[in-house]
Automatic annotation (TrEMBL), chains A, B:
<dbReference type="InterPro" id="IPR036390">
    <property type="entry name" value="WH_DNA-bd_sf"/>
</dbReference>
<dbReference type="GO" id="GO:0003700">
    <property type="term" value="F:DNA-binding transcription factor activity"/>
</dbReference>
<dbReference type="InterPro" id="IPR039422">
    <property type="entry name" value="MarR/SlyA-like"/>
</dbReference>
<dbReference type="GO" id="GO:0006950">
    <property type="term" value="P:response to stress"/>
</dbReference>
<keyword id="KW-0238">DNA-binding</keyword>
<dbReference type="InterPro" id="IPR036388">
    <property type="entry name" value="WH-like_DNA-bd_sf"/>
</dbReference>
<dbReference type="InterPro" id="IPR000835">
    <property type="entry name" value="HTH_MarR-typ"/>
</dbReference>
<protein>
    <submittedName>
        <fullName>DNA-binding MarR family transcriptional regulator</fullName>
    </submittedName>
</protein>
<feature type="domain" description="HTH marR-type">
    <location>
        <begin position="12"/>
        <end position="148"/>
    </location>
</feature>
<dbReference type="GO" id="GO:0003677">
    <property type="term" value="F:DNA binding"/>
</dbReference>
<dbReference type="Pfam" id="PF01047">
    <property type="entry name" value="MarR"/>
</dbReference>
Length: 161, 161
DNA sequence: CCATATCTTATGAGTTCCGTACTATATGAG
DNA sequence: CTCATATAGTACGGAACTCATAAGATATGG
């Protein structure tokens, strides 16, 4: 029964589990936040997700968006219809491939969204003030690596069986 | 135009924005992951959310769960019906208040879920090995504070207008 | 004992998701 | 050039879902 620094190892594992649990809680809380925001904007959760992906990953075609959002192409038609009708996006006919369509987010209602996220943004700013620059860098890197971990895990789940 | 350490301040703000952007990306990625996992288990996103809340926050009544998940009580009836039919939960008639029902998660299918999350858990473990104990503590604390920030932001959004 | 409040669920209307099929366009072989 | 095949987006229809309303059962306070 070799135990080199048993307390440290145990503490380390416990902290790791805490982090994973915190990530679960955080995901739920953010999902709930988006649900509330979506409610105020008369948008389904899925609509807001698509809008979020679109505004971060630039103009996309419906099929590319469907892939990134894990949705059926036909499902996106309905979503895009809703978003277009409400003035969130426009469908641009591409000039190269005339079958293709590129979805573009209109900037008009951006402030409206920003205002609704303001409570969360403010609360986050409060949290951030308590950390040094170096610590913030560390955290940013960690979060980016988590996202990457999620992406690869997702890939594994998407391809097999 | 007073500029005390202008570079630091700018870098600090930029890192803050990076963190918020990373949080957005992470949320999307985790939502997508849950969507895939849910697909394999024949569960809707909402169903899995409820299951997640239930397994973390212990046995709950439908109304308490509805509040925590931001759903209409009547919606939960349908969700709970599905979850019960598929053997995920049971409805226990409370002995105190006989109007009330407490939802309990059955442990039977826990391993099935764990296996599906394994790619993500493994990827996370890989990420975690690159940090010192002190850094992990810092990260855990940060994530918990983010969750708390989400909770309060949510509260503000829920109550007003 | 009665009025009122609370917890859950049945019902029904409106909406959404997605499998399939269809149109339009692009690409490649002969 | 012509035709077969592949691809992008969407229309359509069935099945399923969400939620407002209301009903049924139980609790609580006067």
């Amino acid at each position: 029964m070799e135990q080199t620094q048993p307390g440290d190892a145990r503490h380390r594992r416990r902290t790791g589990n805490e982090i994973k649990a915190a990530l679960r809680d955080l995901r739920i809380q953010l999902a709930l936040l988006n649900h509330q925001v979506g409610g105020k904007l008369a948008l389904k959760d899925v609509d807001l997700d698509c809008l979020d992906v679109l505004s971060r990953n630039g103009p996309l075609t419906p099929s590319a968006l469907a892939r990134q959002a894990g949705l059926h192409p036909a499902t996106l038609t309905g979503i895009l219809d809703r978003l277009e009708r409400a003035g969130w996006i426009v469908r641009d006919r591409a000039r190269g491939d005339r079958r293709s369509v590129t979805i573009r987010v209109l900037p008009d209602r951006g402030m409206e969204v920003f205002r609704l996220y303001q409570p969360m943004i403010g609360a986050m700013d409060d949290v951030l003030t308590d950390y040094t620059d170096a610590e913030l860098d560390l955290i940013a890197g960690f979060l980016q690596r988590c996202t990457e971990a999620g992406r690869t895990a997702n890939g594994k789940l998407t391809q097999d069986s």
